Amino acid sequence: MTRLPDFRLETYFSRWEFTARHHLTASDAQTMTLTELLALADDQDRAAFENLSLGYTETYGDPALREAIAQSYERADAADVICFAGAEEALYLAMNVLLDAGDHAVVVTPNYQAAETVPLALCEVTGVALDPDRDWALDLDQIKAAIRPNTRVVSVNFPNNPTGKIIDTADFAELARLCDEQGIHLFSDEVYRGLERDPARTLPQAADLSERALSLNVTSKSLGLPGLRIGWITCRDRDLLSRLERAKHYTTICNSAPSEVLARIAIKARKMILDRNRALIAANLPAFDAFFAEFADVFEWRAPDGGCVAYPRYLGPEGVERLCTRLVEESGVLLLPAGIYHSELTPTPTDRFRIGIGRANPEEGLAAFAQWMRAQR
Fold it and tell me: Which UniProt keywords apply (predicted)?
């Protein structure tokens, strides 16, 4: 395997995530305790957890979990689902299965770093940037122009991390049609699906639009359960799923048995958990609106279309990298500066930072941020 570069986000988090006093850049929704999650279980799943044998599990994933996941799709069955140890393993193995030297991929930026660096380690990659001057719009003509005869994958992420952008349903359907027409696999990172501020803007899942498309999801983000480490890919190309299973034999082999039962409980209670998390984000947004209104001379703020992260612009003279460094060192408030989202493929804004809006009680962190900002004036 080609050596991958340092994962900038994880390196940064290794230094600050568990030491900063105010984690204001979290990418996941508010989590829950084990007791709270088990309270959502039906009698059968509670008994399954309490009497669980701690042996190996199936490489594809627990059949009952796959069935529960499949229920959230319109056109997929349990046999179209394969589970992984989080979304990162799924993304990594999918790119290694889909791409070889001599192939080509198209990746939309900005994105989660692995969406770019893993394909780049395997083949040529063309980036297509969301346009910050047009509310992070995606230009489908740029996607079309980037496609080559050897293009095998087009990789997208909506709601987008870090911008919170959601494209129109018609554009997403057109993208799936374009990929099908060209014999390309659409790889769709859908980990924030379900946290749209306007539920009417919820995109269809790619696996429902195309037999070739891969829908990536996970319990970590919208459901707020990253500690379970359960992700999945849904794809109606079962030969491709078989190749993914064989690739997984070289990584985790199978998932944690307790995590699969707990994930099953969460997936079955998905609507209630998502309703709770959307309500929390809606309740949090006025505090963020008020903070950025106070400092409108140095920040440009727009609430995200979906997900639980936003990507405001910093207009101050010292630059966003220095802002974030001083802020965490001097006030304990953690943000992610634009350098974390630097792309080798496209120009990327250097004046943005990621802020999380999905955790409970953000007021304390925002107060510390505001106090520090006032002291700079």
Answer: Aminotransferase, Transferase
Query: What are the residues whose beta carbons fall under 8 Å from the beta carbon of 185, sequence distance 6 or more?
Result: 98, 152, 153, 154, 179, 212, 213, 214, 240
CATH number for the domain running over 34-268: 3.40.640.10
d(CA 249, CA 245): 7
Alpha-carbon Rg for the chain in angstroms = 20
Query: Would you say 169 and 133 are in contact if contact means Cβ atoms under 8 Å apart?
Result: no
Cα separation, 40 vs 325, in Å, equals: 41
With cut-offs at 50, 70 and 90, classify the pLDDT of residue 194: very high
% of the chain surpassing 70 pLDDT = 99
288 pLDDT above the threshold of 80 = yes
pLDDT at 318 over 70: yes
* Count of helices and strands (H, E) across the chain: 14, 14
- What is the H or E stretch that residue 46 is in? helix 43-50
Rounded to an integer, the average pLDDT of 11-15 is: 94
- Phi and psi torsions of 23, nearest 5°: -85, 90
| Cis preceding linkage at 110, omega within 30 | yes
Element (H, E) at 287: helix 270-294
The chain-wide mean pLDDT, for the chain, equals: 97
| Dist CA 293 CA 68 (whole Å) | 43
> CA–CA separation, 307 vs 305, rounded Å?
7
